[in-house]
UniProtKB/TrEMBL annotation:
GO terms for molecular function: transferase activity. PANTHER family: AIG2-LIKE PROTEIN D. This is Putative gamma-glutamylcyclotransferase. It comes from the Eukaryota.
Length: 150
């Protein structure tokens, strides 16, 4: 989840005050054994386990500093389409250096939680594109008048 969407869901603003923003740390991470696809007719992705694709991974963000209230808001936002599961991720160096990327694979996994999509039939075959979402859809998910039923 993009930090701006996280803050919109949990705090109803995409640009929180610095003191509030410092409560959470966002680090790039890799989730092995999963893939992320477009959900048919939606802006958002679905992450699913993928045992058939060699080296399947999902790049995302590992967020720390979550409170019970944050998790409640995220659970309501994700809704019945998703199940929150405990997984292992590898924290990424975040600089895109392939040599460091190999070192990253040797790092110890970190326990995390991910929202796994429940309905594989609703997923498109093509992967979801985070950069495309940021360019074309982010504004819809972070606008000031957008509220979530939490």
């Amino acid at each position: 989840m993009a930090p701006e969407v996280f803050f919109t869901v949990c705090y109803r603003t995409s640009q929180p005050p610095p003191a509030l923003a410092r409560e959470h740390t966002f680090r790039p991470a890799v989730l092995p054994g999963y893939t992320r696809h477009r959900v048919r007719h939606e802006d958002y992705p679905g992450v699913m386990p993928d045992g058939s694709t060699p080296n399947a991974t999902v790049r995302g963000m590992l967020v720390s500093g979550l409170t019970a209230a944050n998790l409640y808001h995220l659970d309501v936002f994700e809704g019945a389409e998703y199940e929150r599961r405990v997984v292992s991720v590898v924290v990424d160096s975040g600089d895109g250096d392939d040599e460091k990327g190999e070192q990253q694979q040797q790092q110890q996994p970190v326990a995390a939680q991910v929202y796994v999509f429940r309905d594989e039939a609703a997923l498109e075959p093509r992967p979801w594109d985070y950069d495309e979402f940021r360019r074309e859809k982010m504004h819809s998910w972070t606008r000031a008048d957008y509220t979530f039923d939490t």
